[in-house]
Design brief:
Helix content is 41%, strand content 18%. It has 348 residues and is α+β, with helices and mostly antiparallel strands. A seven-stranded antiparallel β-sheet has the order 1-2-3-4-5-7-6. Keywords: Coiled coil.
Length: 348
């Protein structure tokens, strides 16, 4: 499968910015993405086993670092405590990493609490409309709350999503004897259903994490997307179904081995029902988002036409012929996946 690795960045339209203001996603930021690009040196960041992480730890001149650290602590306060600075005097931005891999080229900032040496992360990225629509759809339709901010320029701040990277989980943990493989299989089926319903693409193993929660008798798992650049951009239907990516093969094989067809249909129906309930609960906000999304170009015309034809075949309909944009396609696909009684926001 060919992924458009260097997808163009789509600008934030005035309508999208108004939506972000209406729902408290926009805030003035003391540090911009461009400010973090003023580093003077870098070196490769390795993991605990000495493997390259594809991140570079960057260094700044002392006066630049002092200025950046103060601003980044304020950004962290905006993200976590709505700008309350009374908790920040013991916080420090003690490391900044940069990733050249992928579309967004993010910076990752580590905030250290000097009182107890605990630390947290957030990401600084270039704002892209596709990613913002992806983040909002995840927030509204998945079981996961997304915490992010955009400034009036072109900077996006994202909260760190904790979990075990999917590729590491598959490589190191999938065959561990204590792992509840049936529960992992169930959650991957639900994850696949969520991605396809809202057309989130490129869910290769390193673009999601596994959140593991100890339960009173066993462990619970949740598969969470962490990359939203490929929200409704590709033309091929299978790009929105994680089951078709080669590096997810071991999990797909496990699902085929452990789950009967009736299990698959049950878990798919469960996830669609939960998504429909979330959509009804957030119907006004979802409608506002989809109305903005439908008016913006988010993919070349040929990709839109290719996806329309593919979804017509999949859903056995011709209704996608009437879609004029990727936003229209997302809206109609939600209607088909979640049911016509879901809400006015996705009624064609």
């Amino acid at each position: 499968m060919n992924i458009s690795r260097k997808k163009p960045s789509y600008p934030l339209t005035p309508a999208l910015r108004q939506y972000l203001r209406d729902y408290d996603r926009e805030a003035p930021l003391p540090v911009s993405y461009a400010d973090l690009g003023r580093y003077s040196n870098s070196f490769a960041l390795l993991d605990r086993t000495g493997r390259d992480t594809f991140w570079q730890t960057v260094f700044y001149e002392p006066h630049t670092l002092l200025e950046l650290s103060a601003g980044l602590v304020q950004v962290y306060a905006l993200l976590k405590t709505a700008g309350d600075l009374s908790f920040t005097e013991h916080l420090l931005a003690d490391r900044i990493d940069y990733c050249r891999f992928g579309n967004s080229n993010p910076f990752r900032v580590r905030i250290l609490n000097q009182l107890n040496d605990n630390y947290d992360y957030f990401y600084v990225k270039q704002a892209d409309a596709s990613r913002l629509y992806g983040l909002e759809l995840e927030h509204l339709l998945s079981p996961n709350s997304m915490n992010f901010l955009v400034d009036t320029g072109n900077t996006l701040i994202e909260e760190h999503i904790a979990g075990i990277p999917g590729d590491d989980f598959i490589r190191l943990r999938l065959q561990l004897p204590h792992l509840n493989q049936v529960r992992i299989a169930k959650e991957f089926v639900k994850f696949n259903e969520r991605c396809f319903a809202r057309l989130l693409g490129d869910m290769r193993a390193y673009n999601y994490v596994i959140d593991v929660t100890p339960d009173f008798e066993d462990e619970q798992y949740r598969v969470r997307a962490i990359d939203f650049d490929q929200q409704s951009y590709e033309g091929r239907r299978i790009m929105y179904m994680p089951q078709y990516f080669k590096d997810n093969g071991p999990v797909v094989d496990m699902c085929a081995r452990l789950l009967k067809p009736e299990n698959l249909r049950q878990y798919q129906a469960e996830e669609r029902t939960l998504m429909a309930r979330r959509a009804r609960a957030e119907r006004h906000r979802l409608k506002a988002l989809l109305d903005v999304m439908r008016r913006q170009e988010l993919a070349p015309v040929e990709k839109v036409d290719e996806l329309k034809a593919a979804l017509n075949r999949y859903h056995r309909t011709t209704k996608f012929d009437h879609c004029d944009s990727m936003g229209d396609v997302v809206r109609l696909n939600l209607w088909h996946m979640l049911g016509p009684k879901t809400l006015a926001a996705v009624t064609p």
